[in-house]
């Protein structure tokens, strides 16, 4: 045994007991990085006289402690001989210097036989600020000012006892005292089983920091780097070489990561399942091609956003993306029609189930038709902001995509009613949901179409903010889709009772969820017919902003709705008597009620609201100006089970 060790006296310092008087008080430990004082409890025969105080860097002691004169090397030798994790944790509380030294000890440098002798449960019960996730992984998240090297070192030392941290999330701030390679080195040494690492907004972490992780954490599976401008291909290369089990890689706004880094991931990682790359100007076709082609059999999820890639990348995806099930392509200005055409015709995307394309000018009629033909198992398709796509392309796509279950179109202004109904009529028998949002090319259709075979598979319909959508279109939809259950028509000022009544008339299934928010021209007639016909199925009804809806609707709801649990009549013309009618209802059993902005509902509704409140879990009374604060006070008191929004 070394002289140093004898001198220190094994039992004299860092005796086995917990350092905190209250073991459930980890704040002492945690606040090491902050300017607070830490008390060291006095011990019999301790060579370190107590109490002593340290604040931040400064380390004050009443008497000179002999052990402090030892150089780092000697302390290191002492620390690695400590019998267990408890003791190491305790010593780490002494000073920043001790903490840094302790956190620098690798697992295989420990002399003790009890490297991880402390039972997991014992230690975990003391680690309160770490979440223990369902998979048994310890997880820790540091944000803003708390993201410092000292805290990382503390985490590393403390969690080393129980096998180390499994997941680490660091959300940096732009403050100068950010995380550096020192903190990451501590993690790398103390947490060899780290599986998930997420670094956001950390300009102070560079390749050396990431290489530390690569050296120590060979089991890393998920890496998420966002806004880390100093990390380059070199850092990613180190990870790729040493963490061959990397499955998930997310890169966002890392300007110095480029093709070489991605090539390395393709070359060294055996199982990259999910890749997401956003706004990395250094990434081009070369990197994407290398990665996708070498991961051909394993890559299942791919997202490419705001990248300077061309048709070449899409061709590679189409050819090699044999295992890809989810593909997201957003803002790819240099991809042309040819890219989408080749991607579809390459015939590799046979497993693709979900495709999202946003802001890609290359999505033209020809491009989209090819995609429809090339993805024989596509189930979900979302198309946002595709300025050049027209009706013909959409209809050809729908004809080709026979397995499609869900189609969502948003801000595709060249799509008109012909494209919309054409795709509805030509989709296969699997289409269950269709959604049209902010499409300004839609005009109302007043056509006498020949007898059409209905689309019996469609269950959910959503039309939002398409100003041209009117009664003619709505009536036609009602005719075509007799099996609708969920209907959302919001912000449609062009539809009136007549349109919706024909939907109700044709509806063979019971409506379950109905959202008519912002359809200002609907009247009580709609609600009374709907509740009479669908009162036994209707569960959710949103009439927010339907200002012609009055108490008559609430009376109809009170009489006819047996299953309704969520009702929103915000900004409707409802009054106290409508609320009273609902309160009198025997069958109504609301859990959520919103009367926000109903200025005619007053204090008189107090008894009725209390009555309704017996079943309510949520009540929105925002902007109810005729309800006084004393009434609100009583409601809050009486409806203690219910969340009241004020
Ligand atoms: C190892 O740990 C066990 C139980 O935690 C303890 O009884 C034993 O004394 C420890 N051995 C050493 C050498 O510290
Ligand atoms: C740092 O963040 C603060 C607040 O978030 C912001 O006001 C400031 O401009 C930022 N500084 C830099 C250099 O980004
Ligand atoms: C991989 O890890 C080993 C030791 O764990 C280290 O020697 C080597 O330098 C690491 N390689 C890279 C590229 O970081
Ligand atoms: C990688 O995963 C395989 C299979 O799950 C496992 O056997 C191997 O130990 C892992 N490698 C590392 C370095 O964790
Ligand atoms: C895109 O790539 C081309 C060719 O590789 C290059 O000339 C151009 O500067 C890149 N543009 C951006 C914005 O990175
Ligand atoms: C992408 O488009 C920009 C501008 O249109 C052009 O300057 C650049 O060279 C293109 N990049 C590639 C790789 O073609
Ligand atoms: C809907 O109501 C608004 C305002 O009351 C009115 O200007 C508009 O003409 C109505 N629309 C239809 C289709 O009736
Ligand atoms: C109803 O539609 C509005 C407008 O689109 C939306 O904000 C709201 O979340 C929807 N409500 C429900 C319950 O789906």
From TrEMBL:
Residues 70-111 form the F-box domain. One of its GO terms (biological process) is SCF-dependent proteasomal ubiquitin-dependent protein catabolic process. SUPFAM superfamilies: F-box domain, RNI-like. InterPro entries: F-box-like_dom_sf, F-box_dom, FBXL15_LRR, Leu-rich_rpt_Cys-con_subtyp, LRR_dom_sf. GO terms for cellular component: SCF ubiquitin ligase complex. It holds the Pfam family DUF7885. PANTHER family: PARTNER OF PAIRED, ISOFORM B-RELATED (PTHR13318). This is F-box domain-containing protein. It comes from Populus alba x Populus x berolinensis. The lineage of its organism: Eukaryota, Viridiplantae, Streptophyta, Embryophyta, Tracheophyta.
